[in-house]
Amino acid sequence: MVLAFETKLRGKRVFVTGHSGFTGSWLCTWLSRAGVELFGYSLLPDSTQPLFSLIGTDVPAVYDDIMNFESLHDAMQTFQPDIVIHLAAQPLVRLSYREPRRTFAVNAMGTANVLEAARLTPSACGVVCITTDKVYDNREWEWAYRENDPLGGKDPYSASKAAAEMIIKGYASSFSGSGKGPYIATARGGNIIGGGDWSEDRLIPDFVRALVSGNPLTLRFPDATRPWQHVLALVQGYAMLAAGLLSDDPRPFARAWNLGPADPVQYSVRQVTDLLATHWSRPDLRYLDEPMPEARALALDSRLAHNALDWRSPWTVPTMIQKTAEWYRAHYANTPPGSNLPGSMHDFTLGQIDEWRDGLKRIELS
């Protein structure tokens, strides 16, 4: 059984920025399996982030910076995509404190470059822009943020993504439809987990590094809650929005969408660490005395996506954490540290994608 949104995307041409990153690798693996014709645009894969080569999904690509507009424009013009999915970003909060100017340039002006290149590409009928749950003016509310709540940003990363949202709104209001430019959807997701993320200053990659190296794990804000969700939940949402922008009337899909976890339980950093330990082992824990400022509580109201897109997750948060631990354990069992054999985790990754798809099929039939 093929999922409905996969049917709409089969045979379409999709241009993915940031295709070789963590989320991009999972996205391209799923879309390739669904029969989508892909083209990637990203920086050269970092040797410390080997997921793309480990999965081994074959995607023709140009490796360059999205700040190089001429290169980006030429690549998009050559490929003539139906849909653009814009993932390329500087995604780390703590790095944004060290490199604020680069963060603003990539996340805000990089988005403008992608939208301008898409506007000048006649074949492009839709763009899915990926921002973050952190675009909201976080007032430490107990209730979840909705798509019409005020945007803001108290750190360079959050502010840069809120700035990207304003650029997207300007392009959508000025150019979308009537032959002037593609329709634009914005996806605001939460804290993504899943196998193959080795980013710095993220809980699960730090947990994995601590176990593999035998070093202690340092926790920041152990009691802070986050909208944890598996990367496949976001990938599914992005694909559903892309399919919607290809429909006869794309206008209902060309808006901002929260893609947050449906699990009513808010899991803290400490609880996620405990759940990970039950599926692997527990590293020695340390606590940061004076962490950089971060929001303590943040939750998304995703009822719009649930009701209008029928966006669902077949896994609970504990299951997502279990599947993430299983991915890393399989990787280190089959691929000794430092070898990073191309394609060594391809079948395992496809297996988890198919498990997720099977869960969605059961939801559709229920």
Question: Can you offer a commentary on this structure?
Answer:
The protein has a single domain, classed as NAD(P)-binding Rossmann-like Domain (Rossmann fold), CATH 3.40.50. The longest helix has 20 residues, at 100-119. With 366 residues, it is of the alpha/beta class. Helix 2 links the parallel strand 1 (13-17) and strand 2 (37-42). The chain is 44% helix and 13% strand. The two termini are 14 Å apart. The chain is built from 13 helices and 11 strands. The strands form 3 sheets. It has a 7-stranded parallel sheet with strand order 3-2-1-4-5-6-10, sandwiched between helices. A two-stranded parallel ribbon has the order 7-9. A two-stranded parallel ribbon has the order 8-11.
Which features would summarize this protein structure in a list?
366 residues, alpha/beta, Rossmann fold, seven-stranded parallel sheet, two-stranded parallel sheet, 13 helices, 13% strand
> End-to-end distance, in Å?
14 Å
Q: Describe the biggest sheet?
A: 7 strands, parallel
Secondary structure category: alpha/beta
Strand content bin: 5-15%
Mean pLDDT, rounded to whole units?
91
Number of strands: 11
Please state the overall shape, judged from the principal axes of the Cα atoms: globular
